[in-house]
Design goal:
This protein is of the alpha/beta class. Helices cover about 45% and strands about 20% of the residues. The longest helix has 17 residues.
């Protein structure tokens, strides 16, 4: 596989948040699952509820914090960089959802990272057929990481 560069920024206290190495492992797993072999670069920012809410409101028009937001890179014509975009993952939402869904918090972090990376690669789940493809890929990638199907 080609070079993968993952920049991780923590806008919240790091206690209980996975280390950058874990995020890199999950990103690599998503890229392998999607059969991306080109050099890839992305940033992941771990945010609090207020920043997550502001980003969701400003970019999606939804006034609440969500678990993960994906921002695909919009490079000018002719600019060739390995940058695929940025993820913002909201730590309090991840913790709350994991508890509500009875999942290990670390597994939920992995799932949301994989989910976000697939969005950066162009996968979506708006239409049912697209959702089936994306969810099946997520499930396979997570299984390779030893993580149970997040959709059951």
């Amino acid at each position: 596989m080609s070079t993968t560069t993952v920049h991780v920024g923590y806008a919240v206290p790091r206690t209980g948040i996975p280390a950058a190495a874990s995020f890199r492992r999950w990103v690599d797993a998503a890229l392998r699952g999607a059969k991306r072999r080109k050099a890839t670069e992305l940033s992941i920012r771990i945010v609090d509820t207020s920043e997550g809410r502001a980003l969701n409101r400003d970019y999606r028009g939804k006034d609440y914090a969500t678990n993960v937001l994906s921002f695909e890179a919009e490079l000018p014509p002719g600019v060739k960089l390995p940058l695929i975009g940025d993820l913002a993952i909201c730590a309090p939402v991840v913790a709350r959802e994991a508890a509500e869904q009875g999942k290990r918090e670390r597994d939920h972090w992995a799932h949301l990272t994989v989910h976000g990376v697939l969005h950066l690669l162009g996968y979506d789940h708006i239409e049912d057929a697209d959702a089936e493809v994306m969810e099946a890929l997520e499930t396979r990638v997570l299984a390779d990481l030893g993580i149970a199907d997040p959709y059951t």
